[in-house]
Write a structure and sequence with these properties.
Two copies of one chain form a homodimer.
Chain A lengths: L6 H15 L4 H14 L9 H16 L6 H13 L1 H9 L4 H11 L3 H4 L3 H12 L1 H10 L5 H10 L2 E5 L5 H15 L4 E6 L10 H6 L7 E4 L14 H9 L2 E5 H8 L5 E7 L3 H7 L6 E7 L3
Parallel strand pairs in A: 1-2, 1-4, 2-3, 4-5
Antiparallel strand pairs in A: 5-6
Helix pairs in contact in A: 1-2, 1-3, 2-3, 4-11, 5-6, 5-11, 6-11
Amino acid sequence: MKTCLECIPCFFKQALDASRIAGADALTQRSVLNEVARVIPEIQLDATPPEMARTIYRIVHEATGVDDPYAQIKEESNRFALNIYDQLVRKVKNSGDPLFTAVELDIAGNIIDYGAKNSLNIDEELDKILADEERVIQREGARFFHDGAFLSTLKQSKSILYLADNAGEIVFDRVLLEVIRKQFPQIRIWFAVKEKPAINDALMKDAVMCGLPEVAEVISSGSDAPGTLLQFCSESFRKIFQDADMVISKGQGNFETLSGVDRPIFFLLLAKCPVIADHIGCCVGDIILLSHQGIK
Amino acid sequence: MKTCLECIPCFFKQALDASRIAGADALTQRSVLNEVARVIPEIQLDATPPEMARTIYRIVHEATGVDDPYAQIKEESNRFALNIYDQLVRKVKNSGDPLFTAVELDIAGNIIDYGAKNSLNIDEELDKILADEERVIQREGARFFHDGAFLSTLKQSKSILYLADNAGEIVFDRVLLEVIRKQFPQIRIWFAVKEKPAINDALMKDAVMCGLPEVAEVISSGSDAPGTLLQFCSESFRKIFQDADMVISKGQGNFETLSGVDRPIFFLLLAKCPVIADHIGCCVGDIILLSHQGIK
């Protein structure tokens, strides 16, 4: 997915947010914004937004000296999600269709991205999502919920590469992977996190804190981009990405960077940004399970 | 009011919106954003946001050659507001307190600024505002509704300078000024519009289209800033600004540019932007009638 002109105001907002979270004083915040302004004319609009995001967070890192501004937020998100883990498991167990209940909850867990800013909203959103009626309506009415293709691909797969998104949210991924492991015990599962800090994306230590190693082989993408920019990933990661029977990609950053890649991928995401919603053809707030068949 | 770092992403959004409304192609839109990026490091943060807005719209004008991108939107806003003029007058007439019903409706009319984007929302918002319960709650609960000071100043004044904001919205101003004229026939009223296009701010022709000359002496500020930057106003305007017994300032742009000025002013506005709401200490969406007593 290409960068839109609408992304440019958003880059400045992200830079300001990240500087503040990194504890920068007003003067440093200003110098970060000036530096972002300096690189704006150089942006290639055919690059994906996470490529520019990577540049922005590098600017923030250089100006503030803070390597991982979101460290505390990530830990809090993990703790928040671990606290509701039992609830999620119960919900899935009591459902008539544990697999797709887990898928829906997992996509809904993508709301944790907002969590850094407003934990009250997370509670509300999750309450809504945990309510049966809401979920049934969403699935039946959804043009972008390819459950049939997802199930048939699972049945034919011997290996899955699951691309993680944010800290905290990975507890929801774990719940889904536990269901997959139970229903399809023959499948080998890789769970890929980022190598280095990338906004609030999950790192290896988050995966460990959230118990992912119990359900998958946790690997690193080798990259610090908030998405999956294959050119910056490690060779070993790229090999798994190419060879896995099924790739499940979580969240907006992975969608933005992989929607133009020529291999089948299932995209699980909550459409949170109007540019992405417009690209998919859905509405902001929609729960998306998209079967991407590679470039035609 | 000073420019905040939060205003910077917003400047880019405004530049993009204005370029598109001016009919610029993608390449021109991009060059406008690049030019805004070029001037960002030069912004003085102790300048008011409308000063930067003035620069932005100048960049858009130079890149697109379009002198008044919002011309059509302004005309539509005028027509929309003129269509509900009778309703507004009836509402005021049937109210137990015509003056402050007109004040509240006038502030609510500040929503027309959003109108360019979504006329459905205007209808909804106005329906809400036109409902009795809502208004009473707002006035009783409002910490920023200085009706006592407003009334006593009116009683003592022989002249009022009313600073207009947007096209369309000025029909609401007219309804208020008609009530003032009726209750205080001794007061001379000047109604100031912008000299040249400034976003969707009202110009002389809008005032004429909306019947303002029937109720006030319509004058020009002499400036093209979307606010009242006294240094760019004409000398004749500045004299009236200084000499008028009472100044009523409408909307955010006038507030941003005059909140630091050393003379008593009544600010009527809907707090639409989080930076302004934060500055006032109110919430976004609040209806504000602020008695500013000059700098202490």
